[in-house]
Every structure is written in structure tokens, then in C-alpha cells.
């Protein structure tokens, strides 16, 4: 039993470093998501500008109302390979962030459980020593 308690104690000591590494990973992924969001926004802004500037042969705006401009933006974004790739990258990074957060939460739970177990046995041995 003493060997198992020692293993639990050692494991408990390793958790802060492991949690910190995961939190730094989350930070890195969050920064990457922000960069991807900026790239997506830039592409969408460029497309919007092109749509707003589009004129027919007579110099009349091709997309004269907001609904027409929005519909055209939706169409153009469907077929923009770069935008599709960035959105996939964004989704993958978001999933990695969520997975890392789940791991951090699980490690926190394991830490609390190990502390409880060690506390229980520490109190049990103190009680046994007193008798």
C-alpha cells in the first residue's frame, strides 16, 4: 500500500507541469486561431470590396442592395479554395483547443482525487498511530 501512495504522490507532483504545458498549448492554438480569423476576415473584406465595386457596362452597380451583395458574398465564399482551407484550419485548431481544455479539466479532477486519497490515508495513519 505504501508503494501505491508513493506513486500517487509522485503523480500529484507531476500534474502542475503537465497542466502548464497544456495551458501553453492552448495559448499557442488560440493565437493561431486569431491569425486564421484575421486571414479569413481579410479575404471576406476583399470579396466584399469587389462586390461593392462591381458595375455593369453602363456604370450601374451590379449588386444594388444589401441582400444582393450578401447573396453574392455567400456564393463567392463557397468557391474560394483559400477561404475553405482557412476555415478547415480554424475548425481543426478549435477542436485541438477543446481537447486540451478537456485534458486540463481531467487532470485537475485527478489532482483533487489524489489529494483526497492521500489526505484520507494521512489521517488514517495518524489515527492508527494514536491508538
Number of domains: 1
Q: Categorize the overall geometry.
A: rod-shaped
Rg (C-alpha, Å): 28 Å
Which class best fits the helix and strand makeup? mainly alpha
Range of strand content: under 5%
Ends: how far apart? 20 Å
**What is the helix tally?**
3
Provide the descriptors you would attach to this structure in a database record.
mainly alpha; 131 residues; single chain
Please characterize this protein's 3D structure.
The structure is a single chain. The protein is mainly alpha-helical and 131 residues long. It has one domain (28-130). It is built from three helices and no strands. The chain is rod-shaped and about 95 Å long. The model has no long low-confidence stretch (mean pLDDT 93).
Tell me briefly what this model is.
By secondary structure, the chain is mainly alpha-helical. The chain has helices spanning 2-53, 66-78, 81-130.
Itemize the secondary structure elements and their pairings.
Layout: H1 2-53, H2 66-78, H3 81-130
Helix pairs in contact: 1-2, 1-3
Amino acid at each position: 500500500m505504501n508503494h501505491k501512495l508513493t506513486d500517487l504522490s509522485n503523480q500529484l507532483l507531476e500534474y502542475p507541469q503537465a497542466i502548464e504545458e497544456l495551458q501553453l498549448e492552448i495559448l499557442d492554438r488560440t493565437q493561431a486561431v486569431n491569425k486564421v480569423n484575421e486571414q479569413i476576415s481579410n479575404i471576406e473584406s476583399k470579396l466584399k470590396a469587389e462586390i461593392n465595386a462591381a458595375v455593369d457596362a453602363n456604370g450601374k452597380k451590379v449588386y444594388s442592395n444589401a441582400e444582393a451583395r450578401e447573396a453574392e458574398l455567400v456564393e463567392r465564399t463557397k468557391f474560394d479554395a483559400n477561404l475553405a482551407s482557412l476555415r478547415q484550419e480554424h475548425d481543426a485548431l478549435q477542436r485541438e483547443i477543446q481537447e486540451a481544455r478537456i485534458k486540463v479539466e481531467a487532470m485537475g479532477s485527478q489532482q483533487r482525487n489524489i489529494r483526497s486519497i492521500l489526505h484520507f490515508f494521512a489521517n488514517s495513519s495518524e489515527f492508527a498511530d494514536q491508538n
